[in-house]
Structures are given as structure tokens and as C-alpha cells.
Amino acid sequence: MIESLLNPPGPARPSSYYVIRQGDAYGLNLASGYWLDAEEFESLVTKANLLVDRSPAEAMDLYSRGFELYEGDYLACAPYEDWCSAERERLFSLYLRSSSRLAKMLAAAERYDECIAVAEKILTRDDCWEEAYRLLMFCHARLGSRSAAARAFERCTERLANGLSVSPMPSTVRLYQQILQHVGDRVELA
Fold first, then answer.
1. Rounded to an integer, what distance in angstroms lies between the CA atom of residue 128 and that of residue 184?
2. Closest CA to 137 of 126, 78, 123, 92
3. What is the torsional sign of CA 76, 77, 81, 84?
4. What is the torsion angle, in degrees rounded to the nearest 10, for the CA atoms of residue 99, residue 89, residue 51 and residue 116?
5. DSSP class of 22
6. Strand positions, DSSP E, 49-145
7. Strand, coil or helix: what is 12?
């Protein structure tokens, strides 16, 4: 099926420009100059991970570029195919972890609005990713909006209860209590 999508119609050939065929096995022709978004995403995240301590600005740029590449589940057109489910989960996990790193770095750089945008996008993919709620709470508090921070906590509590039947972690509750007592620059992200 893959070969029929990439090759022009006509008699079957042993190989094509994009797909190499050896018996019943197929593979990509690396000399074709193909570009895969999933491969580029992983490459950008790997490079960013190496630069986090040495060059935070460059790491944030690489994470941001990777973040923009991730548009959804790997091979979403085949949601029930076992052969790609492990890779789908691996890339999704990589997306969540790297996006969280980007959001934390943005918060540390006091780029609160950008952090909020990243955290909200994380939550569109996984509405039980508690770290994203903590980042939302922290950024809203730093921007002086205790009510927005409280709404983020309430949303977190509701999603965790409905989705996982759990309560927020102690670190999330501590941050919320800190926000209730203080506003703005006195709130610290654990």
C-alpha cells in the first residue's frame, strides 16, 4: 500500500525513488532526500536537551521549533494499528516532556505569556498533565491574576478527578496555597 501511494501507477518495480523493496520488506531510500516531521521533531528535541545548561536560549529555540512540528498523534490515520502504537506513544511522551521543559524555561525567563500558551497546548493533548497546570498557576500568579491561577487549579482538580480519579499532587496544592497567600513575585515554582 505504501509503495502504491509513493510510486506512479504502472507495473510493480523492485524499488522506487522513495521506497526500497527487498523481497517482502520495504524501507525508505535515504538518498531520496526525504523529510519526516517526526524525525526532525526528535532531532530538534535531542539537540535542545544537550544545550539546556550550556545555552538555554538556543535550547528554547530548538524546543520551540520541535513544539511547532508536533501536530498530533504519529500516523493518526492508523489509530488501531499495533505496528505503530509504540512509536506513537514514544513520540507523544517525548512531546509532553520536551514541551514541559520548554514551558519551565520560558517561566524561568519570565516569558509568562509564552509559557501559558505552551502549557495550554500541552493540556489540549493531555488534560491530566499536572505539571502544565502548575505552570499555568505560577505564570498567572506572577502576572498578578490570582483568579486565573485559582481557575487553573480548579480545572486541574476537576480533570484529575474525572480522568484519573486522583487528587492533585502535594506540590500542586502547596503552590495553590502559596498563591492564595501571596500574589505576583512572591510565588515560587517548586
1. 25
2. 123
3. negative
4. 0
5. E
6. none
7. coil
What's the one-letter identity of residue 160?
Answer: L
Distance CA 10, CA 117 (A): 48
Taking only the tens place, the pLDDT of each residue in 75-93 is 665 666 677 678 888 889 9
- CB 26, CB 15: distance < 8 Å: no
Q: How far apart are CA 120 and CA 4, in angstroms?
A: 39
Helix (H) or strand (E) holding 114: helix 112-125
Q: Can you list the residues of the chain whose pLDDT is less than 70?
A: 1-18, 24-26, 28-35, 74-81, 84, 183-186, 190
Tell me how far apart the alpha carbons of residues 172 and 190 are, in angstroms, rounded to a whole number: 9
* Kind and range of the H or E run holding 185: none
Tell me the three state secondary structure of residue 160.
helix
Identify the DSSP state of 149. Answer: H
List, in order, residues 6 or more apart from 114 with CB less than 8 Å away: 106
Residue 131 CA from chain centroid, whole number: 12
Whether residue 143 contacts residue 119, with contact meaning beta carbons closer than 8 Å, is answered with no
**pTM above threshold 0.90:** no
- Residue 167 is which amino acid? S
